[in-house]
């Protein structure tokens, strides 16, 4: 998972830079370039290309708008800056430039619906956790329940976080699946991303579960009784 947690050149933080600048802004710029290239080659832009640009631009905007929240994620606080983060931040694909899947309006609408659901879960869960951290008294007054641990930390047991312990990962993965579905089914190559991302999220969730078991001791099994599912309620 990398060697050095936050490698720096002077005050310049390499991991934060790669995560937030070329990793996000560069992503949106390259997507726009690929859209322009498709128009140059084909004389038009496919619906799939428009949507993948819109979906990923929303993701980039969301990350930059909530930039302060990224600084408390596992990427920044726990994982070293190695191959996984460098590859994930700086590698892009250009499949749609030369492969228009020809998706019809029904298929595109279904993919939009999947994206909306994924984003709602992802952003809703992260906002709930952030609001609880910022003002727990207000969140509790509004009905948020929690487990009070011996360490003094409060673990949310209602709302999104009562549904699953890593429900934000579920929303994030659903969005990645929507992006891949826009490439159609002509090749398995575009689905490498959501497969790779699924492995990454499962591995990260299991690492976090192990770390929390060590951190919270007997409180962690009690929390898992209250929130038994990891990703999907009543499934897993």
From TrEMBL:
Residue ranges the record marks as coiled coil: none
Keyword flag rRNA-binding: no
Residue spans crossing the bilayer: 43-61, 104-122, 176-201
EC number: 1.3.1.70
Principal EC category: oxidoreductase
Keywords: Lipid biosynthesis, Lipid metabolism, Membrane, NADP, Oxidoreductase, Steroid biosynthesis, Steroid metabolism, Sterol biosynthesis, Sterol metabolism, Transmembrane, Transmembrane helix
Single annotated GO MF: Delta14-sterol reductase activity
Topology in membrane: Multi-pass membrane protein
GO annotations of cellular component type: endoplasmic reticulum membrane
Pathway: Steroid biosynthesis
Top-level division of the source organism's lineage: Eukaryota
Listed GO biological process terms: sterol biosynthetic process
Compartments, record wording: Membrane
Family that this chain belongs to: Belongs to the ERG4/ERG24 family.
Protein's name according to its UniProt entry: Delta(14)-sterol reductase
